[in-house]
Write a structure and sequence with these properties.
It is built from six helices and seven strands. The protein has about 200 residues and is an alpha/beta fold. A hairpin with a 5-residue loop joins strand 5 (about 130-135) and strand 6 (about 140-145). Helix 1 packs across helix 2. GO terms for molecular function: transferase activity. Keywords: Transferase. InterPro entries: Nucleotide-diphossugar_trans, Trfase_1_rSAM/seldom-assoc.
């Protein structure tokens, strides 16, 4: 276990009517919750064996008896504020605790693999920032070796502008950066391929 490396996972508590609201508008809240639980299970499968410390940040209360094993994942609650404030606070905590390479992911990407996350840490050995752009204009992964608050400020969160705005900050700060493959986040029905839609009876 590499003690200087931390993986942050931002998740929503899987509650009916509170997850994947854009998807729910098309398929109903029950199916949207089913898809989200599948996404959480995929994210656990992808991250569980990685040789880094792992910390799950919940939107609501911490559930000690959920699908994230306590012996593998530290558990905390996200701070108040917009997504930028929540992520900045989580990174700040990590660096204060002595971690030197910190990566954050969400739980919306079925294309994410252990190899891609491992590559993010490899890129941080020679770059200050690593980003995994998402097809919708956001990003599915962000990593850095120390806190750059500007990357979390003045962003139009949950829009197609997030990746572009973040890259502008990275370049203006003249930070050496690396990009990972562009992947798809699951937010709407069109983000699910035909086979996955059939799996869920959509």
């Amino acid at each position: 276990m590499e003690k200087n490396k931390l993986l942050l996972l931002f998740v929503r508590n899987p509650e009916l009517g509170k997850v994947k609201t854009r998807l729910a508008a098309a398929v109903g809240p029950e199916k949207a919750l089913e898809v989200y639980v599948h996404l959480l299970q995929h994210t656990r499968q992808v991250t569980q064996q990685l040789p880094v410390d792992k910390r799950v940040y919940y939107t609501g209360t911490v559930n000690q008896e959920d699908l994230w094993p306590n012996q593998v994942y530290q558990k905390r609650v996200q701070t108040e504020g917009d997504l930028g404030k929540k992520m900045q606070a989580a990174f700040a905590e990590a660096f204060l605790e002595g971690y030197t390479s910190v990566v954050i992911i969400g739980s919306d990407c079925l294309q994410l693999t252990p190899e891609i996350i491992a590559r993010a840490y490899q890129e941080l050995e020679t770059h200050e920032v690593v980003i995994g752009p998402a097809l919708d204009g956001g990003y599915y992964l962000l990593g850095m070796n120390c806190l750059y608050p500007r990357l979390f400020q003045n962003k139009q969160w949950s829009t197609e502008h997030v990746f572009q705005e973040t890259m502008q900050d990275v370049q203006q700060l003249q930070l050496p950066y690396a990009l990972l493959p562009r992947l798809s986040d699951i937010d709407e029905l069109s983000d699910l391929d035909e086979e996955t839609q059939q799996d869920f009876g959509l």
